[in-house]
Amino acid sequence: MSSGIARCAPAEPALHHIVVGDGEAMVLLHGSASTGALWREVTQTLQPLFRLIVPDLLGYGRSPPSPMGVPYTIGTEVRAVASLLPCCTEKYHLVGHSYGGLVALGLALANPARLRTLTLIEPVYFAALRYGESETAYRRFGEVRDAFATKLTCGDIESAMRQFIAFWAGDGAWERMPPDARAAMRQMSARIQLDWQASFHAEAPRELLSAVGPRTLLVSGERSPEPMLDLVDALHLIMPGSTSIRLKGAGHLLPLTHAATLTRAMLDHLHAEAEHRLC
Q1: pLDDT value for 4
Q2: How many other C-beta atoms are found inside a 10 Å radius of the C-beta of residue 203?
Q3: Which pLDDT tens digit goes with each residue over 242-268?
């Protein structure tokens, strides 16, 4: 999962982001078809305890798109987020959901010495399924990706987004969304396609994943798609020392639906890591 990041070097284009609170730095990264607003409830709780850096990823919210004419990869996103980090030796906490979890993993592996903790909430690191020989789950994700791409190629954005949302949030989720939210989602379709492509190309040496395992919390929801639960289980196995929790009643959108429970789990993990530092 090469990023090509230069420490403390500015990255272009600049991401729109907010910085709130004081204390140790924590970066919160949203997933596909979302923005930094995903973390609104989480930031309200954590703001008194941490300096929170919450960006919109490239092409989402108020951030600019990926540069034209430059192949988009996870490294593109990692370099953009890296420009927001405190410079140059301060350590920080990383939190990422779904596609943002994959970006967080790439950023953590690019400079593990600066990582305090890593919280990955159902990250779309599909390579973990190959490491774990979970071919059925890997193929299922590939089918969802291919169906999405086919619909876009045929110009049927509505159907592409309906199937995409149904996979992650359940049947009927698209129809339950307000019309303005569906319109915004349709505008994101091309960007989501880039996310799929980058996710399937991302790969990291197992020894690097293992090295950050003891600082990693893996979070999933018991009602999430079965292939995603398989992915989190596979990642847990190849990150020895990681902690894996499954939130009761939660699905893939758990930062929205179960923000309070998620935040408590994150704080428990950060507390355990801080105690370990004092030992």
Answers
A1: 38
A2: 15
A3: 999 999 999 999 999 999 999 999 999
The residues facing 24 across adjacent strands are 50
17-134+201-278 CATH fold? Rossmann fold (3.40.50)
DSSP H helices, 51-188, are 74-82, 99-110, 127-131, 135-153, 157-169, 173-176, 179-187
DSSP, res 89: S
What's 58's DSSP letter? T
- Residue 202: closest CA among 53, 115, 101: 101
User: Is residue 69 left, alpha or beta, with left meaning phi > 0 and alpha meaning psi from -120 to 50?
Assistant: left
pLDDT score of 147 more than 50: yes
Instruction: With CA atoms as reference, report the closest residue to 113 among 186, 215, 238, 246.
Output: 215
178 contact partners, CB below 8 Å, separation of at least 6 = none
Q: What is the mean pLDDT of residues 47-71?
A: 92
pLDDT at 162: 97
